[in-house]
Amino acid sequence: MRANFRMQRLFVDAPLSAGAPVEADSAQFNYLANVLRMGDGAEILLFNGRDGEWRVDLSFPTRKRILLTPREQTRPQPDAPDLHYLFAPLKVGRMDYLVQKAVEMGAGTLVPVMTQHVQGKIHSTDKLKANVIEAAEQCGILSIPAVEEPVKLPDLLEGWDRSRRIIYCDEGHDGQNPLPVLSAIRETKLALLVGPEGGFSEAERATLRSLDFVTAIPLGPRILRADTAAVAALAVIQAAVGDWR
């Protein structure tokens, strides 16, 4: 069922069921009451990543409280996307964009990966999680992707579930077209690995090429920025072997 983009959508972490009110937190209160200037009886859509999407009524038991009461479920909860997105952190701003686009493109799990040439830092995953929720609110997504703690590339590879194939963007690949490479993949459990702005080191590329659960793909004849490469790779993977088929 398609999302309704004419109504405001909000994420809450509380259980959702018909007739059971949920209280808006302070940020949500400010947004609904002061920014959108909604009043008693206004309707929005609410989701929590578990119980589907609900049409809810607003009510003001006091001047500083809003209750959100679910009336009907507008969309059931779908299966969560299974594509894992593994990325070297970028600088602030561009990483926000990267995370939001990964959510829009159907990533189900996001994992920051620390590589030798990585430029960005992850002091806390809280901001990443906030970006994930914001992207889900804006794009009609009901499943909230998991955000894992940063991991060094060697540790990631050592502990990897080999039934899930890693596809990584290799700027040194001999070819230009990723489709023939992707068409040969038979696994249904997939992960995309995108390196930092400076690319993977030669040692990292040698390690990745030596692993039988890793596949390198090119992304055309042009050198792409890391955030652009991420969107391009997600799109081509979803179209060739993902959930666009």
What does this structure look like?
The chain folds into 2 domains: 9-75, Ribosomal Protein L25, Chain P (Beta Barrel), CATH 2.40.240.20; 83-240, 3-Layer(aba) Sandwich (Alpha/beta knot), CATH 3.40.1280. The protein has 245 residues and is α/β, with parallel strands linked by helices. The chain has helices spanning 26-35, 94-104, 126-139, 153-158, 179-183, 202-210, 226-240; strands spanning 9-11, 22-23, 43-47, 53-62, 65-75, 83-87, 107-114, 146-147, 151-152, 165-169, 190-194, 214-217. Strand 7 (107-114), helix 3 (126-139) and strand 8 form a beta-alpha-beta unit. It is built from 7 helices and 12 strands. Strands 6, 7, 8, 9, 10, 11 and 12 form a 7-stranded parallel sheet that branches. 29% of the residues are buried. Helix 2 (94-104) packs across helix 3 (126-139) and helix 2 packs parallel to helix 7. The longest helix is centred in the last third of the chain and has 15 residues, at 226-240.
